[in-house]
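[User] Could I get a sequence and structure tokens?

[Assistant]
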Amino acid sequence: MSDPRLVPAAAPWAEDMRTFGVTGTNGKTSTTTMLAAIVRAAGQRVFAATTLDYSLDGVPLPVERSWQGFLAAAEQSRAAGARHAAVEITSQSLARGYAKRWRFDWSVFTNLSPDHFKSHGSWEHYLASKAQLFVHTSPGGAAILNARDPAALLLDQVTPADVRRVWYGYMSRGPCLMEHDLEAVSVRTSVDGTALTLAASPLAEALGGALQVAYVGEVFAENALAAAAAALSAGLPAAAVRAGLASCPVVPGRFEVLGRSPVAVVDYAHTPDALERTCATARALAGEGRVIVVFGAGGDTDAGKREPMGEAVGRAADIAVLTTDNPRREEPRQIAAHLRAGLTRGGRARIVEEADRLLAIGLALELAQPGDVVVVAGKGHESGQTIGDETLPFSDRAVVQELLGLEADDGAA
């Protein structure tokens, strides 16, 4: 091997597979799914790996969630003709050396916010785990970085010089820290999706100055920019980028609109940053109506994020229904106390408490009137609730669908 930084293929059959790797705190699954949709729109088969499943061209592959399962799914996809892969990579996987076990040609960073610190010990270790993807990006590849997230500047410093940088962003994330290669100057959201108007640039010109996605919310506009920038960096046609993003199905539980009068949404938001953005999207949709948020926080996790979570909801919601999430072995009343302190500091929301999550969702929907937006936050696509050492069947999506009298589905994207 001529370059000691070049990660060898995981197996001989993987030698000609080219891979997008996506990491960050929020937006990994959506960005990865968008990238896979773009590759399909380009007329090519694609293997995708997310926290939801392993799939070939959007069809789940029945393999176990493990390194061996990943390899089996990738090999099956390669045998079926896939030469591209889109892979979501968590900080835990990166900390275990994932970036040195599979070759990544294009590395995408979404954002970094205070979450998962408990499993890494500190912010520095958390960021260092994310950085592994960029340190090991293939020579001649590209790093797609969020120009409005300070952590991206640190990732830029550790990315090898022969890896091209591509910067994207939207003003809602914060001040501009680097000149953008792809930037949205305006974003319009409705229950039907999100439309982006792009700032003038060579990449924007190739895309016709605008993008459209079925996802609802400014944060998904940011994810769409990341996916578009990565796809164009990989040489995929601009027409495929536009078509793939427009046709990409919403990931189950990612600001998924299940009802329209009132608007009823299930969302995976479980960090202060994600809740703030989810509430902002709900507020934009509600207009003169009210925003009602059902949420809790997981037990045996970083307790330091709970008050900021509560404060984010307390500032933006009209009614906050405080309930359980996955309490695990922690006392639910202690978790609720942390969240309540933040809600009180937020100062806007009327606080309603109902520990039973099923009853809490029902209560929120009963309180809602036409024009209101109800957000059930925290669990998204999850199909269980962990109480003590037992995980019981529970799906926010199924509960909302049943209470609204909607036909249930299995949540497949």
